[in-house]
Structures are given as C-alpha cells and as structure tokens.
C-alpha cells in the first residue's frame, strides 16, 4: 500500500468527494467528518457518505474516513456510520492519546491515529502499537493549541517529528507527514515533502489537488531504491522459505521491517507499470 | 452515594424497568443492553430506554446503563443513545481492559468498568484510574471463559478479588462484588455478601428483587461504623479548614480516602434517617 | 497445534529420544539440554541431537529443545547448535524474565518460556508478549528455590497459576501446566491434569511415557466442546469474510482468541480421525 | 492564579523579602532555602522566614518556598519549618525526579517541582502528575552539570523545553520558563520571555526586580486572547450545567484544559481591572 | 546480617529500649515512632532516642527506627532526628507506596519499607527496588483498613505474601514476615514462623521478648542448609576470582542472589560460634 | 576507567589488531565482529581473536569486542567465543533495544550497548539500566536506515544526543559519542569532539589512528576540572567514612555520580602522570 499522498476531503462536499474518487490520483482519500465539517452538518455528512461512498469507483485508492475525537459524542455516531460503509478501509482518529485497538476490533477497519496533543506525544508508543494501526500522522496546529503555544513556534520542532517517525518505524507502520496549509506555495510544499522524506516519512497529508502530484512525485522511490528493494525481497523470501525471519545481507541485518519497506517500493513499480 | 445493591434489569423488559424504578429499593439500577438483550432486540431496547427512562421517577436511585463491549459495533450505537438520556448517571462498561476516560469525556457520565477477562485483570490499574470511574465490579463467568477454564474453578479465586478491591481502594473508588447466580438460595447469597463485605466490597451486583433487601441489609454500616465515621468527618473537615489534606487521628493517618469512606457511611444514615 | 502433553527427554539419552520419536504419542517432545544434562555432558548432548534429530521421523509431533538459562554461557552454544537443526520447531527457555523476541528473530523458531523465578513472575507479561512466543509453562521447584521457600509450600499456590493462565490467554498463547514429579502415582497425576484443565491450561509437561496417555486423555476436548467449536469457527470465518474481526454470537463477543481455541479443538478431531 | 513572574528571594535576606512583599509586584514570590543560602545559614534562614513571613502582607501574591533537594538532610528540617508557616501556598522542590505527592499530603501545600537533572527529564511525567502539583519549571545550569555538559550547549536545547511544556499541559498544570541570569540585559530577557510564551509557557522565574515588570507585561494576555477566553468560559460553564465535560465549539473540542487556560486569562483581567 | 527477629520497641519507653539493647537477643531492634507513640509524645520520644540510643551498647544488633508515614508532617521531624543518631543502621518506613531512595541518599541509612496499603501492594516493585532498601515487611491490619475490609479476612491472604516474598527476592533483599499480635500464644506464633519460613521469609517482626527466642530458633538454618551454603560460597568466590558473575553448580545456575543467601547462613554459624 | 577514545578494529585484520595493542594509545580498543567483518569471514575472525587477543599486551587499554546483533545467529557463536577470551573486559552490543543484563551474567563482562534503531531510542532507559552496562554509544547511519531516512538529516539531530547523554548520566554510566566517518578531515573531527564534550559525552568512538590523538586531547580534563575533582573526591570519601552517601558541598548535592565523574578525572592525571 503506497501512502505518498493522503487527500483530505470535507465529508459534506459531494462535489469534492466525487472529484477525489474519479479525477484525482492521491494514494489515499480521507473523507473528513471532524474539523472540515461544521457541527450542524455532521449528520448530513454522515448520511451523504453512507450513500455516496459505496457508489463510487475508488480504483485502488485507500479510502479513509476521519471521525471526530473519541472524547466528543460525535465519534460514536461516526463509527456507527462508518463501519457499515463497505469500501472504507481505514479510520483516521484525531487527538489520539491511548490504545485504539478496540475501534479496530469493532469495525474491522485499519486505524491511522493523529498525534496532535501534549498527551498524545507522551503516549505515542501506546497509540502506534494499538492492534490494527497501519499508519500515523500528526497535527501541529492542534498540538500548539494543546500546549498554549503558537503554530509558528512548533512548526520546526524536531522532537515531535523524531518521535512520530521513530514510534512508527519501531512498530513497522507508516509515518505520514502533516498538512502544509499554504496551498498557493507549491515550491514551499515540495521542499517540505523533501525534508519529510529525508526524515523517513513515506508520504504527506494534503488538502488540495495541486499538492497530490508533487507529493506523489517526491515520495516515489528512485531507481537506486528500486534495485535495493529487489535484492531485499529476493533474499528475505528465500530466508523465509528456509525458515528464517532475519538474515544478514552483506553484513546488514535484514528483517521483516526492511522487507515491508522493500515491498512497498516494488508495489509502486508494479502499480505505476 | 450508597452502592449496596446494583440491580440488573434487561433493557428490553419494560415491565421490569418500571418495577425497578417504582417498586424496588436497590441503591443502583443497571439497565442492561449487553448479555441480557439478544442481538435482534438491541435496537428495540435502545428505543425503549430512550423514551422510558426519562419518564420514570428514579427517586434517588443511581441509574446506570450497561452498554456492549467497545470491541463490538453495538457499543457505538449504545453510547450514541445513552448520552442523550438525561437521568442516566453512570455507564457500566463490560470486558474493560484499558483507559476508559474518553467515554466519560464524551458523555459526562460516570463510568463503572467490569473486569472479566484475562487482560482486564492484568490491566486493572489502567482501567480503574481512568478519569470518571467511580466504581468497579467483575465477572467470573466471562473471566473463566476468557482463560478457557471453568466457572467452578474460578469462583473461589482470591487473586481476582484481592486485585479488584486493592485497585479500587488505591484510587478511591467503590469495589462492588459480582453477581450471585443462584436466585433461589438467599442464604447462600447472604453469606456471599458477608464474605464480600469482609474483603472490603461496598455492595453487590444483583439480578433479582429478592436479593436487593439482603444486600442492602448486609452492606449497611453498623452503629460502631457510624460512630467512627462521625469522628473522621469532623476531624478531616476541621483539618481542611486549617489547610491540611491529611491528619493524624489518634496516631492514624486520616486522609481523603478515609473521609470518603466515612462520608458514605453518614450519607446512608441521613438517607435512611 | 495440540499441546496436551509435552514429554521431556534428556538430551544425552539417545535411546529415550528414539523412543519418544518413534514409539510414544506426546503432542510435543522437549529435548532437554538444561537440568537433565550434567555439565560435563552438555557438549556431547549438543553433538548427539545435531545428528540424531534430523534423522528421526517426528510424525507431526512438535519438536522442541530446552536450552540452558540465557544467564549461563551454555545458552549460547545451545542456540548456536539448535538453530541449525531443521526439524526443531520450538525453543523452550528456562528462568524466563524478559523479552525473548531476539531468540525468535535469530533462529526463526517459536519460543516457549518457563516462569520459574520471582522476577519471572513479576515480569510475566513482558515474557509472554515477546515476538514468537506460542506457549508458556512454569516450574515450581525452581520458583521455590528462587524465593528461598519450600516446594511443598508453593505447590498449591494460586497466584502463580492464575498469572500464568491469565498472561497466556491475554496474549493468545497456550498455557501449559507444570511437571508432576511422582511418576508412580498416575491417579494423582490425572487429578492434577483435571485441576489444570479447569483452570484453563491446555496441556501438561510430562516426564514419563505413562503420563503421556493420561494427559492426552484429560486434555482432549469433549463432544460438547467440539460442537461449541464448530459453531464458533463457522461464525467467525463468515465474519472475517464480511470484513469483521469480532462478532456477537448469541450475545457473546467472539473474536480471534475464541477462534483459536475453537480451531485447536477441531484440529484435534481431525488428527484423531 | 496568574504566574507570569515568580521572583526568587534569598531566604536569609530580610531586606529583600520585605521588599518583595511590600514594594514589588511579581505574581509569585519564591523564598529560597536552597542554592541562594549557604550551608551555614540554612538554620538562620529557617528561623527568619518562620517569623517574618506571617507578619508581612502578601497582598494576593502566591507565596512559595524553595526547599532543599529531598536527597539532602536539609530538606527535612525545611519541610518541618515550612508546613507551620500559614501564608505559604506552595513548596518549590528542586531536582525533582519522582512522585512528590507525599509532600502535598504532609503539608497541604501545592507543589512546584523543578526539572534539572538527567533523571528528572526521563521521569518528568511521574513528577508532574504527582498529587498537588500545580506548576513546573526547570533549570538549565543544574541540568548541564548533571550530564557533565556545559550551560552554553544546553541553553538552546529544544528537547527539554518541549517535554516540560508537554508534560505540564498534558496534566493541566502551569509550565514556567527558567531563570535568565544576565540581569543587566533587559532586552535579551524580553526576547527570552517572548520565545517562552510562544512555546506555551505561562510565565518566567525571575531573580531581580527589574525582570518582574517585563515578565508581567509579556505574559499578560492580549485583547484577542481575552475575547477567546470569554467565549470558552461561557460555553464550557453552560456545558457543565448540562452535565457535559467536553463540548465542541465551532468544531473544536473544548474541555477542562481549555477552561482552565481561559479562566486564567479572565482572572488576570479581573485583578488588573 | 541475620534478620530472624526484629523486635519493635515503643520510642517513648526508655525501660524497654534499654532492655532490648542490653538483655534481649533479637537480630534487629526497631524503635517505633509511629503507631506505638501517641501524637503528644512524638517530640518526647524523638528527644529520648536522640540521647539514649548512642549511649547503649547494641552489640551487633541491627538498630532500626520506624518513622511516621511520609504523608504526615511527623515524618520530617523524625528524619531530621534520626539521621543524626550514629548507631541507627536502618529506617523502617510505614505505608510505603513509592520509590524511597531519596531517604537513603539523605540519611545514608538502609531502608526497610512496610507494605500495608492497597497502593503499596500495586506498587511493591517500585518500593523494593528503591536504592538503599535491604529488607521489606508488611502489615495486615493496616492493609485491611486501607481496603475497608476486616483483619480476619486478610490474615490468610496468599496474594500479599506471594508478592512480598517475590518482590523481595527478585531484587535480592530480605522478606520479613509480619507481626503476630497474640503474644500469649507462643505455639501459634511458632507455627506462624514455620509457615513464613516455608514461604521464603527470612525472619519475623516481633513485639514481645518471648517471641524473640522462638523466631531466632525457627529461622536459624539447619545443618543441611549450612552445608549447601558452604559449597555455594566456595564456588561463587572462585568464580568471581575468575571474573565470572554467574556459574553453573551441578547444573544449577548460581549467582549473586544465591551467594547472598548462602553468606547469611554462614554468618549465622560464625556469630553463634 | 578513561574512555576518551574507543578505536574500532576489524576482527579479521591481524595487522591492525597488533597495531592497536602495541603502537596506538586509545583508551579502549573495540575488536569488531559485526559490520567490519563480511559474513564469510565471521568464523575466521572468531578463531583469530580467540588466539591472538590473549597473546598481546593491552597495557591498561580496555579491550572490547563488538559482537553481532542478538537478532542474528552470529551473536551466539560470537558470545560463545568471547566469554573464553580472558583479556576481554567489555562486550559492545549493536542495535540494543532491551535489557541486556543476561549477557553480563553469562559472561562476567561489562556491556556497552549501541543505540541505533528507532526502538532502541524508545527503549533507551531499559537498555542503559541493564545490569553490567558501563557505557553507551549510538550510531546515526543505522538509525537513519531503521527509520527509512537519510544520514544527512539525522546527523544534527538533538533528540537522539540528548536522550543518549541523559539516559547514560541518569544511571551513572559513560556516554560515548558516535563515529565520525570522514577520516581525512581532522579539523572537522576535532570540532565534533568539542561539541560532544560540551554535551556531556566523555569520549568518542574512532576508526583511524589519527583520530585517537585528537580525541584523547579534547576529552582530557583541564586543570580547573582536576581541582574540582580533588575536592569532590576528598569530601565524598570523608562522607562515606561518616556513613553518608550524599553530601552538600558548598550548597550543592554531591553524590556517587559526581564521585565517579571526579574519580575518572583523577585517574587520568595519575595515568598520564
Ligand atoms: C482549502 C479548500 C477549501 C480550497 O477549496 P477551493 O477554494 O474550492 O479550491 P480551488 O478552487 O483551488 O479548487 C480547485 C478544484 O479542486 C477541487 N478541490 C479543492 N480541494 C479539494 C479537495 N480537498 N478534494 C477534492 N477536490 C478538491 C475544487 O472543488 C475545485 O474543483 P472544481 O473546479 O471542479 O469545483 C479545499 O481545498 C478543501 O476543502 N480542502 C480540504 C480541507 C480539509 O479537509 N481539511 C481538513 C484537514 S486539515
Ligand atoms: C433471572 C430472571 C429472568 C428471573 O425472572 P422471573 O422469572 O420473572 O423472576 P420472578 O418470577 O421471580 O420475578 C418476580 C417479580 O420480580 C420481577 N423481576 C424479576 N427480576 C427482576 C429484575 N432484575 N428487575 C426488576 N424486576 C424483576 C419480575 O418481573 C416479577 O415481577 P411481576 O410478578 O410483577 O411480573 C430475572 O430476574 C432477570 O431478568 N434478571 C436480570 C438478568 C440480567 O439483567 N442479567 C444481566 C447481568 S448478569
Ligand atoms: C525419570 C526417568 C529418569 C525414569 O527413567 P527410567 O527409570 O528409565 O523409567 P522406566 O524404566 O519406567 O522407563 C520405561 C521406558 O520408558 C522410557 N522412558 C522413560 N522416560 C522417558 C522419557 N522421558 N522419554 C522417553 N522415554 C522414556 C525408558 O527409556 C524405558 O524404555 P526402555 O524400557 O525401552 O528402556 C525418566 O523418565 C526421565 O529421564 N524423564 C525425563 C527427565 C527430564 O527430562 N527432566 C527435565 C525436566 S523436569
Ligand atoms: C542577583 C542579586 C544578588 C543582585 O542583588 P543586588 O546587587 O542587591 O541588586 P541591585 O542592587 O540591583 O538591587 C536593587 C534593589 O532590589 C533589591 N533586590 C534585588 N534582587 C531582589 C530580589 N530577588 N528580591 C527582592 N529584592 C531584590 C535589592 O535589595 C535592592 O533594593 P535596595 O536598593 O532597597 O537595597 C539579587 O538580585 C538576588 O539575590 N537575586 C535572587 C537570587 C536567588 O534567589 N537565586 C536562587 C534561584 S536561581
Ligand atoms: C504489648 C506490650 C505493651 C506488652 O507489654 P507488657 O505488658 O509490659 O509485657 P510484659 O509484662 O509481658 O513484659 C515483660 C517484660 O518485657 C518487657 N518488654 C515487653 N515488651 C517489650 C518490647 N517490645 N521490647 C522490650 N521489652 C519489652 C517489659 O518491659 C517487661 O520488662 P520488665 O519486667 O523488666 O518491666 C509490649 O510488649 C509492647 O509495647 N510491644 C511493642 C509494641 C510496638 O512497638 N508496636 C508497634 C509495632 S506493631
Ligand atoms: C577505514 C580504514 C579501512 C582505513 O584503513 P587504511 O586505508 O589502511 O588506512 P591508512 O592507510 O590511513 O592506515 C594507516 C595505518 O593505520 C593502520 N590502521 C588504520 N585503521 C586502523 C584501525 N582502525 N586500527 C588499527 N590500525 C589501523 C593501518 O593498518 C595502517 O598501518 P600500516 O601502515 O602499518 O599498515 C580503517 O581505518 C579501518 O578499518 N577502520 C576501522 C573500521 C571499523 O572497524 N568499522 C566498524 C565500526 S564503524
Ligand atoms: Mg487536528
Ligand atoms: Mg460479563
Ligand atoms: Mg526449572
Ligand atoms: Mg537548581
Ligand atoms: Mg502499620
Ligand atoms: Mg551500526
């Protein structure tokens, strides 16, 4: 599963939802029921997605829904809606601060938590190792609010990024970089993507069609990465046939984490044909 | 709040619900949406309680609803129903295994978790210290199932009881003893109550009107306990006026835990006064 | 994988090893390199098993090797031997007190830890949730030694049993009851098996051929258990086809833990034809 | 309680103590018994403050005493003195590394721990969630010493600041920025205050009268913040009347943390009214 | 250091203190400043022990002082007194629930915590692994009070005993059994000692001269134990000379824990000549 | 023990090993069996060091061996070799992520773990407080690989450095800075050493003879440091004679951590004296 770009779409905007499904090429689409939907429209949005999402052709895209914070009553009606929508593959949970495995058990859907509070940072390991979690992202505006600080002061913060990437990789899940709000500035966005990639993020949450292409481009693996991946996959699958879960390839330990990294690279190649 | 008896009533049984509210005298009533309600009747039960509960006069009884396990989809529709029912004071959550503070935040209702799985026993401290938890009980049949053992082998188990009481008291919440299934055997029930009281439980979950009176009787404080309580309350409130949170009464540390124990005793006297 | 009986065989006793493989019917055979092999014969035993084990027909039995305590140098030569022996499926690690996942990574073999020290009891959760662990047992003689107490005082101890079973079941692995040393007393042994089964243990470690048959008998599922298992498996597999990881069967939550319990029951039926 | 400025005053300097109480306007005064008082004068300082502090008019200022490290014998005589001094509201505990709730229980005074050692950083969550803790600050000189590094290398360190602010906010207590030693450089001090505010600190520890005014100014809320606070308080108090602990205000979760932030803002307005 | 008997002596009773030092033969004497000393006599008791204890000849006995609970103000004056009394070797801390290493650092005296509350049971590992702890005991009356239960119900409780012994042994410190209150019943006391020994306790807290002799007798090692100890010490010291911290003696791991057990046995032999 | 420079030497390079022992002056020599030795030469290297290391005169240098990752089978044969080589004082364990005390118990050798994976960063406290650990270092290339990021992005990362130094100092062990790969650039290397020293590292891992001298120079204590050390040692040893483990020297707490820092300084003076 590639997650180079995850496009947020307001859950009450039918036009954009159709566009995301039918015209755009993000790896994931995240239908938002939280901040992008005003309180008065939450119920309308739930009805809309319940009917609309199963009708559209998602064409290999990972379909996700961002529900409201479990500490609000909205969350419960959201889950009661989402688990009935067949094509939804993943539930994005904001302000994650604790073990979310129960949502996975109840819905059978993968979980992508968002770290965006002080306690979420302190508890990130509990969050990412929840059963069913396959990716994690974070939010800087909400984080700054939660500590009473300013967005500008926390944007360059290395502590949060280092912990999000480390916790994700320690548990074999995908770290996804946060939203870049300035949709006019594509050059700034590209640089943000490149920095994120160098830190180990596998993709970026995006909010506008124009950001999709840039993210897909930056986070696609290079030829060198592809060759590395081929060797890893070959060696590891041979090892597994020999009953081994970890091998030494040219003096480097190669285990399931590397295998998953490599498989994602090759899946990309296959998909983009 | 006294919790000498907590009467379970099936959530789809209007007659029993009315009886529990209007004719019986348990300290708490727990409307059940979980095991006592077949899958096909869950939605009927939700509708029934949404309409019926606000109409009845609960007359000082603590009204609780037991929802389904958070690892089933039923839970979400349950919470979406319960948080709208004004007189509900407390949500009983079965198979509790993790921090449940989010339910308290979302609903504003107190939480009473049930320890009834292997992991619940291992994680009991996380469960009872969740924000909003005010009582805890446990279930032996479900526990035995969760470990693949038999009810008979686990009924006398001291480990579970010791941990339920200790975890509850360590965090200043009420330990409530489990259901006694043999409704014909009131003498056995009374002895079960007395053993529970000697271990520190403050009351018992019950399933039949005849058990209510016995539980209320056994778990009511004796005169000696009442005198002790009067001294504690007096001394502690004086201490608080002097800006102290813990005092030494006749060489014994007296703090907020003791104060709460004592206040419950006196509240009983006042109510039954 | 059934584990009703796990027969210990001294690693330096070729005759018994052959007998265990070819004549006896334990579900698992545990070749011992630890307490049953004197220090002077450790190296001889390693050589013997390296050559002998691959030649024998294990006929569906789970072949395990108990290595020495990781806190002795013997452990390293043991592992260096065992990971090269193809038919070995599982490594039994005595005096387990910490995360043993590294042994699984290095060898590709499943791990069965033994809880038999004071610290092992306190750290049991770390031990059983190690990657690659599929069963856990315990030892009472070593435990008593580790706390400076007597075997007799600890044999009936419910704390250890409750924690071994609970930790195992909380993480979906098999709890196996400990060795019964009095090989002459088969009636006592049978009662010990029955008590163990009622607590949720799935089988017993045994030390003599005569104990194998009794254990296999007691720990085999009854007809009622078989019917229960059929329903669980059917319902759960249907649920999984519908994309759900947990279902409500007659008002009871059924999830992967129950499915694994049920599958083991049916596997038994299939094997025993 | 505003804590924009917390003025340290040596505990053996009567003139400065009087000045701090009667002439200066810090939000808190911290009488120091630790580093500012030489060993030979500890006892003199204890006697002085025992007599002097109750005589002065503190006029709404939060009166705190910094005691010595609990790992020195001085600490015990300090506490034995301080708990008898009525107007003392808060005890500042240096080199905090573990749960300090026992000091709160013993004295009935709030606790402000200082994070200033390597272990304190690793254990910060245990420290800030101690019962009775209402604010937390940190020290960079002592931290650098504790790791064998230099002050200059650790002054810009983002890890320490991020964890102090996050731990404080995760548990709803006040993060206070550290001392700025260069008392001549008021412009540098102002910039330090502004950076601290942007990171979420609510105030600063200060050591000289001239720093008080600057800190009070920078950490006072702006008009925009005041309006935000009015809306939060109004909405949250209405929610509480409706029995809810968390609400959605314009699509944002508002809970007790925000309410406390907002209340502090309004308290400021009222006081300076 | 043998700790077969630890005799409590009220801290305000000069006659008994002298008797304990000069006439009786307990391995440890614990001067009590807590429950045995009324509030009004605490200060008198402190003065008495400050003067008296250094004058007496303790003759190889371990001199301990039980201070008041750290959650009362008495504790601080107690420590301020005790750290100045040279012959005091150990501080007994009641109602222990958290890391007590700071008391060791401040006083240089060994620590013996008492587990006697619900939270103390849950946190026992934090308590016993505190720096400076060398023994641990527990109290059943206070424990029963802390959970609101009765003494009679908790006296036979195996959970508490198992955890006290296990936690102590896991960290290489001495588990000491609790007080037996019925001073008239020496036969019952002897049986209590024997049960305690079989569980691994090394001695007993006692309250009357008549109990001292019985405890010393029961907890003295037998000849067989002495022989075992001689072999362990010899083998381990040889191992240490060879640079090894753990050895295999007749197929059993022998490490520092066993060495300390063995040394205590031999020290007894040496002392008792 | 000084650890200003720790020189890596490939375990299969006899010439370099001889040179390191006989001609060069690093404080430690680390014979590498991991990355510097190709898979095909592992066994050759083990044989070489088994024979060669005992023959050479290490002349006060700390002799270490870096074994392979415990999650590879190489590790077991490595340990089986190393524990038999007398002059080896320390085992360096790469990709450390869990409690490594068992290796110390088995071998009697000190442990120096390397933090170089995402999980290693999250678990650093478990790693450094393992029994037998006396120093810790880290690797940035492996860390970047483990998170899927680039070396360049992680080289300046402050989070990793802050945690390595803090965890080391919190447990009283030596933090050693990582390898600087550009062996031609001695000026850059010197600056790297100076930054490391200012952060509290006591030395540096090096890979070439030319780096040894620079590291020894930068990490040697200055005269001022020497004077400070003399006072600490004198005061602390006097305190210990008085039965105290922590003292107040000029108002600063001085305990075992400072004593060890100071002793290292003086040991240097003595050696180079
Ligand atoms: C920011 C935003 C409001 C701007 O919308 P806009 O003003 O319509 O933007 P543009 O005019 O540039 O849009 C160009 C086209 O892309 C479409 N589009 C814009 N954002 C889109 C999105 N996130 N998904 C799908 N389609 C989108 C528009 O509908 C428009 O299509 P049309 O011309 O066919 O109508 C919009 O991008 C948006 O809602 N983003 C997602 C916000 C969100 O979900 N936030 C929650 C997480 S932070
Ligand atoms: C066990 C049970 C089915 C027996 O019911 P029953 O056969 O009707 O019992 P009885 O005939 O003795 O009941 C006598 C009266 O008490 C009423 N009653 C019985 N249990 C009651 C209950 N839990 N709450 C309220 N009223 C109850 C009956 O309705 C009946 O009243 P009625 O004569 O006015 O009709 C019933 O007690 C019950 O449902 N208990 C609760 C079960 C539950 O909630 N379990 C979940 C947690 S384990
Ligand atoms: C206890 C023990 C020594 C008794 O052995 P014994 O005196 O030979 O017992 P018996 O004479 O009753 O044995 C009968 C037959 O069973 C065989 N046998 C006994 N225990 C066996 C075992 N554990 N596995 C395989 N075969 C076994 C014997 O070899 C003998 O076979 P034979 O007649 O063909 O020679 C033996 O059972 C044993 O070694 N058990 C395992 C001990 C162990 O591994 N302990 C470590 C974990 S606690
Ligand atoms: C640094 C310090 C010694 C400088 O003192 P100084 O040389 O007297 O400073 P100034 O001459 O500028 O002081 C001007 C006036 O402010 C007063 N003053 C200075 N610092 C003061 C303080 N922290 N609190 C109250 N009054 C103070 C002085 O007494 C003087 O008043 P006066 O003219 O009426 O005598 C002093 O500010 C101080 O002691 N600060 C607190 C140090 C401390 O507590 N450290 C521990 C935590 S890091
Ligand atoms: C229970 C207790 C009050 C009984 O005291 P008592 O009535 O004097 O007992 P006896 O008359 O049997 O005492 C016989 C002698 O032993 C002495 N004695 C009794 N308990 C003693 C003790 N704990 N330490 C030293 N001497 C003691 C008495 O002083 C008396 O000596 P004397 O004849 O020279 O005066 C007493 O044993 C006691 O105080 N025990 C300790 C209680 C304590 O410390 N509790 C706190 C922890 S639970
Ligand atoms: C990088 C490296 C291959 C360069 O080696 P090189 O090309 O031989 O370097 P130079 O020619 O500059 O060496 C000069 C002398 O120092 C010796 N030398 C170089 N690195 C040495 C080392 N790490 N230890 C001991 N001697 C070393 C060389 O053998 C040579 O000696 P000689 O002239 O007597 O033959 C070598 O330094 C090396 O192997 N370093 C250690 C790598 C390692 O262990 N990595 C694992 C941890 S990251
Ligand atoms: Mg957000
Ligand atoms: Mg149940
Ligand atoms: Mg054993
Ligand atoms: Mg300081
Ligand atoms: Mg007590
Ligand atoms: Mg490396």
Structure description:
The structure is a homohexamer of 273-residue chains. Chain A starts with a strand and ends with a helix. Chain A has 13 helices and 10 strands. The mean pLDDT of chain A is 92. In chain A, 48% of the residues lie in helices and 16% in strands. Chain A has 2 domains: 5-218, Phosphoenolpyruvate-binding domains (TIM Barrel), CATH 3.20.20; 223-271, no CATH class. Chain A is globular, with a radius of gyration of 19 Å. Chain A is an alpha/beta fold and 273 residues long. In chain A, the strands form 2 sheets. Chain A has an 8-stranded parallel barrel with strand order 1-2-3-4-5-6-7-8, surrounded by 5 helices. In chain A, strand 7, helix 10 (186-199) and strand 8 (203-206) form a beta-alpha-beta unit. Chains in contact: A-B, A-C, A-D, A-F, B-C, B-D, B-E, C-E, C-F, D-E, D-F, E-F. The interface between A and D is medium-sized, with 30 and 28 residues.
């Amino acid at each position: 599963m590639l997650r180079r770009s995850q496009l947020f779409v307001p859950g009450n905007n039918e036009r954009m939802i159709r566009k995301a499904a039918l015209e755009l090429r993000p790896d994931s689409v995240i239908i938002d029921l939280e901040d992008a939907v005003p309180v008065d429209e939450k119920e309308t949005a739930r009805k809309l997605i319940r009917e609309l999402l199963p009708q559209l052709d998602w064409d290999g895209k990972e379909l996700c829904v961002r529900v409201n914070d479990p500490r609000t009553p909205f969350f419960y009606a959201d889950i009661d809606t989402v688990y009935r929508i067949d094509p939804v593959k993943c539930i994005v949970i904001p302000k994650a601060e604790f073990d979310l495995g129960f949502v996975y058990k109840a819905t059978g859907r993968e979980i992508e938590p968002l770290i965006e509070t002080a306690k979420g940072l302190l508890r990130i390991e509990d969050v990412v190792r929840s059963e069913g979690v396959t990716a994690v992202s974070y939010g800087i505006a909400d984080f700054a609010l939660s500590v009473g600080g300013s967005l500008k002061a926390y944007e360059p913060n290395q502590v949060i990024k280092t912990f999000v990437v480390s916790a994700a990789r320690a548990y074999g899940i995908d770290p996804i970089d946060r939203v870049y709000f300035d949709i006019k500035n594509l050059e700034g966005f590209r640089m943000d993507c490149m920095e994120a990639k160098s830190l180990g993020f596998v993709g970026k949450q995006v909010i506008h069609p124009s950001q999709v292409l840039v993210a897909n481009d930056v986070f696609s693996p290079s030829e060198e990465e592809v060759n590395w991946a081929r060797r890893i996959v070959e060696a590891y699958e041979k090892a597994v046939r020999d009953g081994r879960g970890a091998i030494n390839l040219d003096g480097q330990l190669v285990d399931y984490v590397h295998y998953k990294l490599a498989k994602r690279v090759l899946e990309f190649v296959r998909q983009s044909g």
